[in-house]
Prior knowledge:
The chain contains four helices and two strands, in the order βααααβ. By secondary structure, the chain is mainly alpha-helical. The longest helix has 23 residues, at 8-30.
Amino acid sequence: MPRIPMIPLLERLAQIALVAAVCLAFAVAIMPTGEGPSRYNDKLVHGVTFFVLGGLTAAGFRRHSALALFAALTGFGGLIEIVQWATDWGRSAELADLAADMVGGAIGIAIARFITREP
Length: 119
C-alpha cells in the first residue's frame, strides 16, 4: 500500500486543522446540553472525535513520538473532563469519557502513522 509523504505543507495544514478541531471539540464539550433523551452514543462521539484529533496530531507532528502525542491528547481529554466537573453547565465528568478519548486518540495516531511517511 502506498503511503502519503508528509511534505511540510501537508504537516502545516494538519497543524492548522488540529487547532481548529481542538477549539471546536473543546467548545462543544463544555456547552450546556438540552433536556431530553440522548440521540447519540456519547462514548462513540468521544472516540470518533479523538480519533480525528489523533490523526491530525500524528500527521502534523511526525517528529514527535507517538507516546508523547498520546500523552498530549490524554491531557486534553482530561482537561475537558475537569472543566465539565468544575462548571455547572449541565455537563458531567466521567472517566469512561476519558477512556473513550484515549482509545480513539490511540487508534487515530496509529492509523495516521501507518498511512503517512517522511517525504
